[in-house]
Design brief:
6-stranded parallel beta sheet, 25% strand, globular, 396 residues, single chain, 10 helices, 17 strands, Dihydrodipicolinate Reductase, domain 2, 9-stranded mixed beta sheet
Length: 396
């Protein structure tokens, strides 16, 4: 069992989630494929960096991410920064021969994502984009049912990601509302999770027809160094422009003939982390709601007319990843567990010399879908989505 030194760049919310996963992964999945060693963490200034090292259990801290990439002792570079820094860091890490895990979205645009993909392609580096929601056991179970043919040929996918943390027009101007940093708004921030699930469960997108809306044109400027999330009021001070979307709504044609729709918004009062999908096939249906993570709703045509209806399967030891989590079904799976599973699969690929999905090719493909959604909204028309050759026949 090999130790692998991790250099984490970014000590915010995602830095906390990744650090927790590195600490807990060997406890859940033992014997672990490798032991993540929290070696060095980088933050914007010395105070933030040293505090993050103490809080998240890192041996060293730095204010210069280049020192992580250039350090020969570092095996893994973990990118948990705002989106505008992803490409530069990932390309430098690839050139240094580091394995890379990068938070989603992979980058701000398809062009940036392509550069990241090309930097790692054919290098032997293990690279991963952190769409962790697909590692929720219920989602993986839905994938198993689909692969087994339990719901037949897929006809329709309907997905949502609804939140309310920015519904208040006086909540602060996070970097997530600024195009030069985020790239896009609800589209890149949360819709990409549903897009990833749709690709994982149904297949590649052929074309999209989309609407993008910005409901709140400006917000109070933030004070202090930390990015503010949640329904926190920004006060009566100066305001800055919001130049990204608040909501995305798109119809989808899939390459396999299925159709679907995806909606994402951060302005839905009463919805906290409402990620859902409903999939209809010729032999049954599947429904999932992330706010009830241990449950998968299923209905099979073979059940017969006198007993047909959705029933609940509670995920546990008999289901995907069950051997590493909790000993009885419905004991409770949280956000942290999805990150622990993500870390397990990433380090397993490194230890065994394999690959992992979703990787930078998947992240690039998602960025191409995002670009098509933006183009469709601008043209008010259907727009075709190009598909990377290596993904056209992939089972993900």
């Amino acid at each position: 069992m090999k130790n692998l030194n991790v250099g984490l760049i970014g000590g915010g919310f995602m830095g906390k989630a990744h650090s927790l996963a590195y600490s807990a992964m060997p406890m859940f999945f033992w014997p672990a494929p490798a032991i993540p060693v929290r070696h060095t963490i980088a933050e914007a200034n010395e105070s933030l960096a040293s505090e993050a090292a103490r809080r998240f259990g890192f041996e060293n801290s730095t204010t210069d991410w280049h020192s992580i990439v250039e350090n020969p002792a570092i095996d893994v570079v973990d990118i948990a920064t705002p989106n505008h820094l992803h490409a530069e860091i990932a390309i430098a890490a690839a050139q240094a021969g580091k394995h890379i895990i990068c938070e989603k979205p992979l980058a701000r645009t398809g062009e940036e994502s392509k550069a990241m993909y090309e930097a790692v392609k054919d290098t032997g580096i293990v690279h991963m984009v952190a769409f962790n929601y697909r590692r929720t056991p219920s989602v993986a179970l839905a994938k198993r049912y689909i692969q087994e043919g339990a719901i037949g040929r897929i006809l329709n996918f309907r997905g949502t990601y609804l939140q309310d943390w920015s519904a208040d027009p006086d909540s602060p101007l996070s970097w997530r509302f600024q195009k030069n940093i985020a790239g896009s708004g609800a589209l890149g921030d949360i819709a990409t999770h549903v897009i990833d699930m749709a690709r994982y469960l149904v297949g590649e997108f052929a074309s999209v027809n989309s609407i993008l809306s910005t409901f709140i044109p400006d917000r109070p400027l933030q004070t202090g160094g930390a990015d503010a999330l949640g329904n926190v009021r920004g006060g009566a001070g100066p305001r800055g422009e919001v130049d990204v979307d608040d909501e995305v709504l798109t119809m989808v044609r899939f390459a396999n003939g299925a159709v679907g729709s995806i909606e994402a918004t951060r302005n839905a009062y009463g919805r906290n982390n409402f990620i859902t999908f409903e999939i209809h096939g010729t032999e049954g249906s599947i429904f999932f709601n992330y706010e009830r993570r241990d449950e998968l709703q299923v209905c099979f045509a073979a059940d017969g007319n006198d007993r047909r209806g959705f029933r609940t399967v509670y995920t546990g030891p008999a289901h995907p990843y069950g051997e590493g989590l909790w000993p009885i079904p419905a004991l409770g799976v949280g956000y942290g567990e999805t990150k622990i599973i993500e870390a397990h699969d990433f380090f397993k690929a490194i230890a065994e010399g394999g690959s992992v999905s979703p990787n930078f090719a998947d992240g690039y493909q998602t960025a191409l879908i995002d670009d098509a959604i933006i183009e469709s909204a601008e043209k008010e028309a259907w727009v075709d989505v190009p598909v990377l050759a290596e993904l056209a026949t992939s089972t993900k």
